[in-house]
Amino acid sequence: MGNPVVHFEIIGKDAERQRKFYREAFDWHIAAPVGGAGVPDYTMVQPNENGGIAGGIGTAPEGYEGHVTFYVGVPDVAAALRKIESLGGKTTMGPDQVPDGPIIGLFKDPQGLVVGVVQTAN
Predict the structure, then answer these.
(1) Sequential pLDDT tens for the chain (122 residues)
(2) How many domains does the chain have?
(3) 61: domain range?
(4) In CATH, what number is assigned to the domain containing residue 96?
(5) Which of 42, 68, 74, 100 could form a disulfide with 58 if both were Cys (CB 3.0 to 4.6 A apart)?
(6) Which pairing describes strands 5-12 and 55-59: parallel, antiparallel, or unpaired?
């Protein structure tokens, strides 16, 4: 069985504006902002109490436009990033330990699209 998508992320220039938009557009429950993995003003998002994957909305670091991406759960982020690079992808972040959270990484696929990996208990 393949690795599941376990998290999504929306990182941009104005996290508060993004939170307001997604809260009003989709009635998402959005928690209070916290910092995490080098992203200031990061907020956890739960789209639906009865299902759907959780995510986050945050402010992009200075000099970075941001991204909208999903995270795939893997047993070992470093090993996954090595495999991804052997297949033509390029690591852009990580592995990094999120404070009080999981180990994550970001990569660009062979066509330049940003995707994440997160270490899960498999």
Answers:
(1) 688 999 999 999 998 999 999 989 888 989 888 766 566 688 889 877 667 899 999 998 888 888 899 999 999 999 999 999 999 999 999 999 988 889 999 999 998 999 999 999 75
(2) 1
(3) 5-119
(4) 3.10.180.10
(5) 42
(6) parallel
